[in-house]
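Sequence in, structure out.
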Amino acid sequence: MPGEGWQTVWEGGKFTEGMSSNAQGEVFFNDVPNSKTYKIALDGKITEFVADSHKSDGQAFGPDASCMRVPVARSRSWRMTNRGRRK
């Protein structure tokens, strides 16, 4: 927003990265060492999206709303549903 500085929206993680958003505008990010993925809903509420992300550190959403992610602990890419389940 013009004229506004940075604001902290979440604390408690060890190392976060892999921020992305879906077509609805929800934002997702990974807490890599804790192996969790979180979702920031449109109302600003933050919830755990994937309980064990296998240390995913990157993700992107496709046109079919599926989430492609790279779990470091698995050395491969995964495709997930918009509900956080592997396809």
